Amino acid sequence: MKGPPILTTVVPVGPEPTHMICPHCHAEIDTTTYTRPGNIAYIAATLICLMGCAFGCCLIPCCIDNCMDVHHTCPNCKAYLGKYRR
Ligand SMILES: [Zn+2]
């Protein structure tokens, strides 16, 4: 398998699964979503770790949640469809 191609689609992706026609396999799908922290989340997590775990652990969950990017993929052909950044 090749890596996911870099796409500039006009898919109107939001934070929720989107009903659409997949531009790759042309199937009618609801996008599969998953969240991954954006770069800001990694930076924030690093800073929090440096400040001390006891203090930082209670801050990490809300911080990470705000920094998450939502990625959309096609459940049929597994194509990467786009990313929604909060
Ligand atoms: Zn597809």
TrEMBL record:
<dbReference type="InterPro" id="IPR037519">
    <property type="entry name" value="LITAF_fam"/>
</dbReference>
<feature type="domain" description="LITAF">
    <location>
        <begin position="2"/>
        <end position="86"/>
    </location>
</feature>
<feature type="transmembrane region" description="Helical">
    <location>
        <begin position="40"/>
        <end position="64"/>
    </location>
</feature>
<protein>
    <submittedName>
        <fullName>Cell death-inducing p53-target protein 1-like protein</fullName>
    </submittedName>
</protein>
<keyword id="KW-0812">Transmembrane</keyword>
<dbReference type="GO" id="GO:0031902">
    <property type="term" value="C:late endosome membrane"/>
</dbReference>
<keyword id="KW-1133">Transmembrane helix</keyword>
<keyword id="KW-0862">Zinc</keyword>
<comment type="similarity">
    <text>Belongs to the CDIP1/LITAF family.</text>
</comment>
<dbReference type="Pfam" id="PF10601">
    <property type="entry name" value="zf-LITAF-like"/>
</dbReference>
<dbReference type="InterPro" id="IPR006629">
    <property type="entry name" value="LITAF"/>
</dbReference>
<keyword id="KW-0472">Membrane</keyword>
<keyword id="KW-0479">Metal-binding</keyword>
<dbReference type="GO" id="GO:0008270">
    <property type="term" value="F:zinc ion binding"/>
</dbReference>
<dbReference type="GO" id="GO:0005765">
    <property type="term" value="C:lysosomal membrane"/>
</dbReference>
